[in-house]
Each structure stands twice: as C-alpha cells, then as structure tokens.
Amino acid sequence: MTGHVLVAPDKFKGSLTAAEVAAAVADGLGGGARTVPLADGGEGTVEAAVSAGFRRVPVTVHGPAGQPVTAAFAVRDGTAVVELAEASGLQRLPGPPAPLTASSFGTGELIAAAVSAGCRRIVLGVGGSACTDGGAGLLSALGAKLLDRDGGELAPGGAALRDLDRVELTGLHPALAGVEFELAGDVDNPLLGPTGAAAVYGPQKGASPADVAVLEAGLRRWSEVVGPRCAGAPGAGAAGGVGYAALAVLGARRRPGVRALMDLVGFDDALRGARLVVTGEGSLDEQTLHGKTPAGVAGAGRAAGIPVVAVAGRCLLDGEQLAAAGIRAAYALTDLEPDPARCMTDAGPLLRRLAGRLAADWLGRSCA
C-alpha cells in the first residue's frame, strides 16, 4: 500500500505537547510519517500554530488575578492565533481559584497587541479559562468602559457585573472595525441558564452554588446592558462568557476549534495521499466525542476514505463508540503500563513503544 502516514494528535495534558506526541509516534512508527500537531482551541492552540510555521510573539499581560504574566500569540500573514488560556487560563492563577474576581483582561491585551501589530484576522481559541466575566475584562482591555450608576468603573470579575449600569464602547481600539474574528472552541453552551457559563463551568473554576448564583446574576445584567441578541447563541457561554462578548461586540464567527486549527495548519493538504492517519489525546472519553481533536480528525479521515486510529494515555470509550466517531482502533499507554503516574512521567518512551504496536497492526512493520 502506497501513501504516507499522517500523525495529527492533540497534547497529552500534563505530560507531552502535541508536537512531542507527534514526534514520539512518528519515531515509533519507524520514520517517514508527516506530523501535524493540532489543538481544539484550548490550551496548546498557540503551540500547534507555531509548530505549523506561525511566529510566536510574547507579550506581558495581566493574568486572571491581575498579576503580570508572559503570554504569547502566534502570527503569520496577517492572521493571529490568540489562545485565551495563555493569558486567562486556570493555570495562570497564582493561588487558589478566584471564580468571582478572575478576569479575561489579559486576553483582551493579547488581542490589542495583535491588532496593533497589523493583524486583520484573529482566531480566538477559547477553553480552560479561569474567569466567568462574560468577556467584560477582554472588552475593557480593548478600550470599553464599564460603569456603575455613579459613573465609577467596575472592579474586575463576574461578580461586579451585578452593579453594571452602562457600557461605553466609543473608546474601543479604532482598528477593530477592520478585523475579522473567529471564535474557535468546542463549547456550544449559551451564556445564561442551566446550561450556561456559570451553571455548567463555574464549579470547575471553584465556584460554590452561592457563587454560581452571583455569577449568573452578573452575566444576566451584562447581557441586559450589552444586548440580549447573542446571549442564547451556541458558544456564547464559552470561556465564562467570553464567547458572548466576541459574538455580540466583536462580530465573531463561531467555528469548531479543531476545524479552525486544521485549516490554519494545512491539515487537508497533509491528508491528501495518506494511507493512514494517527490522532490522539491524553484521555479518549465522552468529551472526545463532542468536538475534541480526535473526533475532528476522524471525521475528516472518514470523509476522505482514509482509516484513522488513535493513541491516548487512557481510553474510556468502547469499540462501538470509537467506531461511531470514525476511529478504527485505539492504543493506550495503560495497555503497556497500568500505573497512571508512570504513564505521565514516561509518556514519551511508552508512546514510541505503542506506535511500534500500531505499525505492526496497520503497516505490517515489526514492533520489535
């Protein structure tokens, strides 16, 4: 059988970047594979773009708790890839979660830096946020004024939105009008309600039931002032409501995160002529089936009539679920090493061994 092997995985969170996963698999296959590291809009999105030839641009911004952090966006040919997790992610918190006060301000600073650098298309990857502020911080960093009834500026965070009286958008960065925004993520939740940003994702960011009620009230007031038109849109609840600000104020177009990244890094060109595709992520589970990288890659492979197999740290999906997603087989590190801690620390060597098994099964190569 002729044709190349395409290796297009996401990261193994906590152990390997997507590029490291791809390199380990390619090495274990015996060489000759084409590698296209991917992401779904969350953590690792900028890294995947850089692996595809984008240039990393570091920027000092405010983290979710207001502290200075060094984040980065990726740029090529006037397109910037901005990853919310870089500036406003949970991993950027200097201490315990701060669900009521965490802000998306730093993400807005990354966007401002990209716009000031001349970028006219911004792909905003949303996922892994520490904040539930409806994107209020992001817009503030871009020049919006959020004022209470006395004309004072609101404090950062979702809780303060309960005191919002008006939003002044006249000070927004003047170049924003000429920028095309894409909202890249796998979350389709609305802003408000039982499936909204506060109710579903607030607890993951440390919010108690009482905190969730406070955040929901703040987001509701935010949508009343900014305008309710986009509050119910799929993706408005992404990243604690940053999706809402992007849709309602920046005029963003929502796309599945993995598809947006696949287009940016030239996945379809790399797929052409392949005889096998290897994808993967740290955990193949129910979330994988809802827009994660392996599901996106498998869908593209199935449409092209090319078999897709997956590697993972662990696999919690049965054969029927894998087949329904378009994945012919899954190979997990836990097949080789039952100790999860060892799977994390020795992920690279284990993955190379696993790829040897995959080569024996699908390419007729020895896995010795």
TrEMBL record:
InterPro entries assigned:
Glyc_kinase_flavodox-like_fold, Glycerate_kinase, Glycerate_kinase_RE-like, Glycerate_kinase_sf
Which species does the entry assign this protein to?
A: Amycolatopsis thermalba
Q: Which Pfam families match?
A: Gly_kinase
Family stated for the protein in its record: Belongs to the glycerate kinase type-1 family.
The protein's UniProt keywords, in alphabetical order, are: Kinase, Transferase
The protein's name:
Glycerate kinase
Q: Report the SUPFAM superfamilies cross-referenced here.
A: Glycerate kinase I (SSF110738)
User: What is an example of a GO molecular function annotated in this UniProt entry?
Assistant: kinase activity
Q: Which domain of life is it from?
A: Bacteria
